[in-house]
Amino acid sequence: MKPWVGIGLICGFCMFIGEAFLWPLIDDEEIILKTVLLKFLFWMFFGLIFGYAFIKIRKKKKVTTFLF
User: Fold this and answer.
1) pTM, whole model, 2 decimals?
2) Where does the chain cross the membrane (predicted)?
């Protein structure tokens, strides 16, 4: 698996959990299967776009990781 795919899927999955389950629980909204499926597709797609853009920007700037 390419690194940008892994980063994108992790990011998309975290956003999906927050948007599909945590936020409706906070707002006392119903969790509907159709909405959950649409949010899953939406966040996986945009997670992959984010992962691809993240790797491209990182390679372009040649960012190194430092701890403080």
Assistant:
1) 0.78
2) 7-26, 32-55
